[in-house]
Amino acid sequence: DQQVKQNSPSLSVQEGRISILNCDYTNSMFDYFLWYKKYPAEGPTFLISISSIKDKNEDGRFTVFLNKSAKHLSLHIVPSQPGDSAVYFCAASAGSSNTGKLIFGQGTTLQVKP
Amino acid sequence: DTEVTQTPKHLVMGMTNKKSLKCEQHMGHRAMYWYKQKAKKPPELMFVYSYEKLSINESVPSRFSPECPNSSLLNLHLHALQPEDSALYLCASSQELPAYEQYFGPGTRLTVT
Q1: B27 touches chain A (CB under 8 A)
Q2: What separation in angstroms does the CA of A65 have from each of A22, A45, A59, B50?
Q3: Among A21, B21, B69, B89, which residue has the fewest nearby CB atoms (within 10 Å)?
Q4: Confidence of residue A41 (pLDDT cuts 50, 70, 90)
Q5: Quick one: CA torsion of A4, A9, A13, A19, rounded to 10 degrees?
Q6: CB B107 to CB A96 under 8 A?
Q7: B5 in A contact zone (CB under 8 Å)
Q8: Taking 70 as the threshold, does the pLDDT of residue B56 lie above it?
Q9: pLDDT of residue B97
Q10: How confident is the model at residue B111 (pLDDT cuts 50, 70, 90)?
Q11: Distance between CA B47 and CA B58 in Å, rounded?
């Protein structure tokens, strides 16, 4: 049972345009969501997070939107840069009863073309 | 300093060998984690330590044995592994539990022959 889903395995965008990565979840107990970026042969790098009490969080070029009623979140990268090319993982946790377990989606490979 | 370090970077071992993976963080974090990641898959949690005590074991086979000697160090002892255990092993840390952001190390690429 996949509780966190990233339905697009890959995404290709032009440099300077917006990249939108999507993530859906099924467990209503999740109340904290994170995005990680991963380059080949490296560990995931934390990008941005959002608590379920918010619907938007922004950090520089990265914005995460949360739609609790749809159980959907998205990561917007504006403007996209070639260095953003990586695998992006969405992750979720049940904060209030948090055991430290993060549930990851399958990942979306983003390619930003110069 | 938001760095988690892991050694070795690469490890090749036979099925009868005993080896250890090491992880270190100097962020004062009190929760540490081991994850396993297979190619083109998301990281899967193996163990969680909180204040140097094992908090979660995700039904990991006993051929993997974690150890937390102090709040900065986390080891994973390996013995009698199988070829299907070949993967990227990731260590992570967070301030404490409940955990929010977890910070990952670069991983150890393990190959079991």
Answers
A1: no
A2: 10, 19, 12, 31
A3: B69
A4: confident
A5: 0
A6: no
A7: no
A8: yes
A9: 77
A10: very high
A11: 6
Which residue reads 């790098």 in tokens? A45
Q: What percent of chain A has pLDDT over 90?
A: 84
Whether residue B1 is predicted with pLDDT greater than 60 in this model: the reply is: no
Q: Within an 8 Å CB–CB cutoff, is residue A108 touching chain B?
A: no
Cβ contact A24:A72 at 8 Å = yes
| Contacts with B97 (C-beta within 8 Å, 6 or more apart), sequence order | A98, A99, A100, B30, B31, B48, B50, B55
Q: Residues 45 to 64 of A: which have CB under 8 A from any B CB?
A: 45-46, 49
CB contacts < 8 A (A, B): 72
Alpha carbon distances (Å) from A36 to A30, A69, B67, B71, B80: 17, 23, 26, 25, 33
Task: Let me know: does A63 contact A54? Beta carbons within 8 Å.
Answer: no
